[in-house]
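Service request form, structural biology core

Requester: graduate student, group of Dr. S.
Request type: structure prediction, single chain
Budget code: on file
Notes: please return the result as structure tokens.

Sequence provided:
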Amino acid sequence: MSPKLKARITGALYLISGQAFSFAEFSVRGKLIVFSDAATTARNILAHETLYRMAFAAELVPLYMVVTVMLYDLLKPVHRNLSLLATVFSLVGCTIHLVNCLFHLAPLLILRGSHSLSGFSTDQLQALSLLFLKLGVEGLNISMVFFGLYCLLIGYLIFRSAFLPRVIGVLLAIAGACYLINSYANFLAPAFAARLYPYILVPGVAELVLAFWLLIMGVNTGRWKEQAHAAGVHS
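Core staff response, request fulfilled:
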């Protein structure tokens, strides 16, 4: 597989992965969950159970892991060890995110009133399901620490590369820094984090820019091969 074709496949998978996350997080949960109202949230989830389950299933498809491995292969001519370290950060973030999905499934198990929960009142079950959803938000913030580090390193590698635009690397590094700031602000000063959101995440558009560039333009094959040869990496 040529570097350009590999880059275009990576870009396509990157976009699909982003769409799956946006569908689950914003199009479904963002509209069904009301964090200030447990009863309304419970009614919304049960009234749209099929859609809610589809969002859960969409997040379980590990496309971002594939993207991570393919980006490692594309960027290892720049610096093999840093590209490997970035890959580790991303895979750790993906693992945390996949485990975190259990918090999104828990409300369905609780609200369906299994026999083991028969001693709880309806209000208590609704409050418990909302608690799991709030834990899911915190789990996402934890995973974004690793994705922030990943974007910082990938941005640096792209900036140092000879086959991708440096400006994309700068934008991606800024996005990674913003992910880190947002996560740690949520951990240390939630009130301050609420003022930053959603503006702090706007630089994340850099991921879309990278995905579209890879899909449409790919990489400069000649320069990629030159850098790979200089680094002793075989295409």
